[in-house]
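Task: sequence design from structure.
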């Protein structure tokens, strides 16, 4: 099962695996990939070096098969590809947009007739405190992420491995400690806490991926040089400010040597995504302030069953709206501004029948 799982992760079917002399199942595709990297130098390796290279690639190089491509998100493809215009999801998308418009138009009118104002600003006042202070943590975390770049730059120039690993984990841990410190000391509410924690997680994952991928590349290069053959990767030329900055602004948590870049910008598409993000954010605020917070404020005045029955539909709408806000609009807008080419931020998670499939595609 373990070998089949490795083969599956490497993009090799179980039919492509064959038992070796020791009776173990070895993905034949791994050998082919190793040979393609070393090319004519493969025959120069000793038998024990070939075994080491195959083992090293199977253990550390499977990430190379997970290539980024020039792709659109599923919803974007519904309008870009004429063959997908009759796909069933298109109708549900229109239904959601109509529901979004209904919320934006009806709730302010009802609120004005009942309370004399278009929306309840109580929730707005809770996160207006320290708003710019919290917003400033975003560029601060981005600047702190450059620790990963300088760490790998120094490692490429001969810094000891133990020191590189120590700097990597200490800098990543310090980001989380600073995040928790700011939340506890300032006694921030849910919105501030979610925002700063979200940013800490994003930058932590970016730093970790950048450190790990470049470490794996350095191992490959050093192994090749020790055997007197030419390495096939761009390391350490890829460790430069331009490459790192594009990785930081690109909407991805996984570093790769050649991230796909689009040379031109579609400003109409960008304006559409920004507008939809703003409208969806307003709808999320209205649903939260008008239908969710009032139920929690009732406390023990209503039963648990009644509270759940009142919150099911608002939370369902909130869940879909947050997905649409972040994964379809915000990430597509960031990708368009940065020129990042791979827009497949999600797959058809709504069709999944198991939690395992849902986690992979969501």
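Answer:
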């Amino acid at each position: 099962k373990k070998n089949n799982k490795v083969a599956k992760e490497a993009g090799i079917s179980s039919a492509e695996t064959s038992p070796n002399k020791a009776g173990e199942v070895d993905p034949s595709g791994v050998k082919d990939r190793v040979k393609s990297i070393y090319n004519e130098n493969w025959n120069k390796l000793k038998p024990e070096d070939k075994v080491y290279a195959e083992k090293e690639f199977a253990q550390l190089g499977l990430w190379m098969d997970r290539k980024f491509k020039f792709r659109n998100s599923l919803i974007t493809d519904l309008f870009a590809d004429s063959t997908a215009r009759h796909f069933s999801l298109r109708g549900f998308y229109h239904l959601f947009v109509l529901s979004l418009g209904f919320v934006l138009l009806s709730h302010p009118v009802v609120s004005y007739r009942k309370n004399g104002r278009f929306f309840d600003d109580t929730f707005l006042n809770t996160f207006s405190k320290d708003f710019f202070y919290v917003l400033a943590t975003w560029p601060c975390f981005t600047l702190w992420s450059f620790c990963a770049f300088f760490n790998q730059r120094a490692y490429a120039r001969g810094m000891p491995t133990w020191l590189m690993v120590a700097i990597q984990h200490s800098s990543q841990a310090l980001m989380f400690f600073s995040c928790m410190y700011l939340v506890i000391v300032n006694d921030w509410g849910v919105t501030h806490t979610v925002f700063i924690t979200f940013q800490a997680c994003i930058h932590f994952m970016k730093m970790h991926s950048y450190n790990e991928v470049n470490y794996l590349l350095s191992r490959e290069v050093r192994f090749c040089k020790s055997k007197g053959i030419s390495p096939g990767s761009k390391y350490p030329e890829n460790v430069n400010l331009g490459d790192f900055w594009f990785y930081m602004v690109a909407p991805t948590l996984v570093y790769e040597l050649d991230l796909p870049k689009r040379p031109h910008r579609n400003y109409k598409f960008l304006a559409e995504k920004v507008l939809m993000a703003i409208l969806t954010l307003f709808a999320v605020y209205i649903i939260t302030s008008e239908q969710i917070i009032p139920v929690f404020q009732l406390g023990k005045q209503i039963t648990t069953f009644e509270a759940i029955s009142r919150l099911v539909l608002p939370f369902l709408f909130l869940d879909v709206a947050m997905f649409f806000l972040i994964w379809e609009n915000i990430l597509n807008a960031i990708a368009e501004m940065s020129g990042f080419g791979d827009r497949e931020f999600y797959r058809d998670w709504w069709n999944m029948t198991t939690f395992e499939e849902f986690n992979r595609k969501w």
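The chain has a mean pLDDT of 79.
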